[in-house]
Amino acid sequence: MAQSDADVSLGGNSAPAGTPTRGLLPLLFLGNAAMYAMYSGVGGVLLPLQVEHIDAADKVANLGLVAGISAIFATIFNPVAGALSDRSGRRNPWILGGGLAAIAAMALLGSVNTVLLVTIAWCVGQAVMNIYQAAITSVVPDRVPLARRGVASAAVGLGLPFGTVAGVGLASAFGYRTGYLVLGVFVAAAAVVFTAGAREQRMPAKKAASLRDQGRAFLSVLRQHDFRWAFIGRFLLVLGYFSVVGYQLYILQDHISLPDDLKPSTAVAVLTGISAVGMTISTVVGGVLSDRFNRRKLFVGLSAGIAAAAQLIPVITPTWPGMLAFAAVNGVAFGCYMAVDTALVTMVLPKAEDAARDMGVLNIANAAPQILGPFVASAVVSLGGYAPLFLFGGVLSVLGALAVVPIRSVR
């Protein structure tokens, strides 16, 4: 079947040597921006507000419980959904199905009023969003040639700052009941636009595998030396990032002295905007320069190190200006890291035909820290307050930077 200009052909590390078409890059940006809007708006604003409204006295522990348990579903559904899309030979139906299901999941989440029901509803939300995520993450290794992975990953990475700003802005504007539904509609609309514009060429479907075989396959990819270290580095840095960002609203409520006319939810939106500017600049610059110099590990390691330094700023200066500086530096570091590390990961995938499954395994490094992060962060805050939480995030970022050193096949 002939492809239109919106398409880029085929699979994984064997993608053709040409450049990605212009039509795919804005669609990747939109699809990923909607996903990050959901995650940031729900995790950064709506869930904390809802949990606080239900039980203000135990908000820190309850938020850790809700976020941690629901992230288990993210960990389970991401590689499973990736394997299913590999087996079907399609990505678009999974993107569309997950996107449309987000409306129902968010409507459910906005309607409940106990911690138990919030946990169950957000589990459903994590499940459908990771079906969406597993498929859209696989588009780059499927359709973009190796020489242009940095640029394509930059388009994906730009979805993070813009999506985060949109998600936090919408969440702050509408509150948690209406805000959930608005974010669900945003994801569904992006899924419709993406699947309508990025028509795909069907890949060969795979035979069904048993659950035992799938489990063995998931574990086998982690035995690959370079993929394993890429996984470890991503896991550590994301754990450090979300341990702090997931409690940002409470940090601003309980730890930082804000100006009298500034509400904590508004302050989150301000910090998000500042961080997004840094992410935008560093995502583009990092993606382009990593292509030009063909050096992925250098940029990944430096950005992880800068992320560690950013965590020290609120410890040294626990003030509103200190938080502004933290947001700017952390945004620059995280934007560059995610853009270049995504390109690096696509280069260490063991098999092109298993791209979605293997990217799904890698995405456990995005989801699993959300399991550990809230529990660990709530324990750190309960024992020592918010300053040790920043130090904890900084140490993990340093370890994430060191994890790329053993990778052999990528410079």
Overview of the molecule:
With 411 residues, this protein is mainly α. It has a single domain, classed as MFS general substrate transporter like domains (Growth Hormone, Chain: A), CATH 1.20.1250. The chain has 15 helices and no strands. The chain has helices at 24-54, 59-88, 92-111, 115-137, 139-143, 149-197, 211-221, 225-245, 248-254, 264-293, 296-316, 320-347, 355-362, 364-384, 386-402. α3 (92-111) crosses α6 (149-197) and α10 (264-293) packs parallel to α12 (320-347). The relative contact order is 0.17.
Secondary structure elements and their pairing?
Blueprint: H1 24-54, H2 59-88, H3 92-111, H4 115-137, H5 139-143, H6 149-197, H7 211-221, H8 225-245, H9 248-254, H10 264-293, H11 296-316, H12 320-347, H13 355-362, H14 364-384, H15 386-402
CATH third-tier fold name: Growth Hormone, Chain: A
User: In terms of per-residue confidence, which ranges show pLDDT below 50 for 5 or more consecutive residues?
Assistant: 1-21
**How far from one another are the termini?**
37 Å
How many individual domains? 1
CATH class: Mainly Alpha
Biggest sheet features: none
Helix coverage percent of residues? over 70%
CATH architectural name: Up-down Bundle
Strand tally: 0
- The whole-number mean of residue pLDDT values reads 82
Order of helices and strands: HHHHHHHHHHHHHHH
